What we know:
heterodimer; A: mainly alpha; Fusion Protein Consisting Of Minor Coat Protein, Glycine Rich Linker, Tola, And A His Tag, Chain: A, Domain 2; 3-stranded antiparallel sheet; 3 strands; 30% helix; B: mainly alpha; rod-shaped; TonB_ExbB_1 (chain B); membrane (chain B); cell membrane (chain B); cell inner membrane (chain B)
Amino acid sequence: MDRAELIGTGAALAFHVALIGALTLSLAQVHSTPEPPSMEVEFVDEVGLESTAPTSIATPPPVAQAPETGPAEPNVVPPPPTPVPLPQPRITPAPQRPAPAVRPAPPRQTKPAPAKPAPSRPAPRVSRIGDDFLKGIESDDLSPRSGPAKPAAPAYNATARASIGQSIIRQAQRCANRQPFLGEGANKVRLTVNLKLNRSGRLARPPAILGTRGDADDVAKYGDLLEDQVRRIFAECSPFRLPADLYDTPNGGWNDFTFTYRVD
Amino acid sequence: MPIVEPSADLMSPLNLFLQADIVVKLVMLGLLAASVWTWAIIFTHAIRLKRINRQTDSFEKDFWAAKDIDAFHARRSEEKLPIAVVMSAALDEWRRSTNTAIVDRAGTRERLASRMNAAVAAEVDRLGDRLNILATVGSVAPFVGLFGTVWGIMRSFTAIAGANNTSLAVVAPGIAEALFATAIGLFAAIPAVIAYNRLTHGLDRLEAKLGRFSDRFHATLSRELEVEIATGH
């Protein structure tokens, strides 16, 4: 092994060690893609057992039922009535004028009246649907169907809470955008915010932070700053326009509203 | 639900190596060794060829400028240069052939030529030693890496079957590790092929240079032979 070989082997080893070291340290780090814009999904524990949708149909619609068709009428042609024996004209030629009653009548009556329908033709079926089969439809028991449904009172349910939360966050976004960015990871901390609101939408009390969730390091690093930011955000954007009829309902309302917030 | 955080150094070669299957590990180690060896050969030969080329040029210049070939030989024959070896072989043959009472000119010429050709071939052979390793690594390393990759991917798919889960998170790490084997194979092969072509070219040029020198020296000696016979030396 001469000098060139020693140098070459040493250089090759050093080159590989340096390359692996560089790759291990930082060069090949895969930067995780930034979190996509958040879509808040809230898991709601309370689920209404009853549907709160307004019930517009009070009574079930009447069962549509076709009238039963009965068995066809027996295809029996009634025997043509036997010609009634003509009443014998009174022959008693009692008075002078016998004619008017006797003369025109007898020849006509010899023609039997029912002989007109052809005896071979079957008798037409007679449906049981009478002309009056539509009669019941206009009856009173169906009136709720056509009558105007009574509008249901808005319910303060999970959907309403979610939309109110979204509405508040949307209206606060303007103020959130003004806040300085605290650093990488600050936008991953979720804070539980409680707002006490007046009927006008103003804050009745400064916003309260009930808790923080997220990576422990991020919470330790940004927790207090984020709480301050959140208080500022909701104080600055304070008059929130929210549906007035949900301010105070038997099920609760947005007068005391708690939601999860993330400074973006 | 646990959130799987991708670790930042997922691409670190050390991690990829440590997580791999034993077969893939062996493939990776072999390829890494091949890469180190390849680069050792590349560096060694590049340094050596460059030095030899430079020294050969200066030696040749000095040689043709020298007044007395015997004195020059005595002074420079200690050098391990190919051109010096060729010169020594020629002078050695010259002395042996002209030392006898009757000098066979044609035979001497033939012997000189064959000795010098043999010397040139031997020197080029010595210099080209191990270049075949570069060729071998260049052609085989991608296949070895591919073997590791195929093995690793097979293992990943078996893991899918075992986990009853086709999500990418189950397969992706295994496939990444497996592909790393091909990456190392290519990493070893590409420089090997390039260096093989380049070093072979450099060696060919050196051989041509030595051939030109030996032809010229042969002509000189041949002319000398005629002069010596004519003067009856």
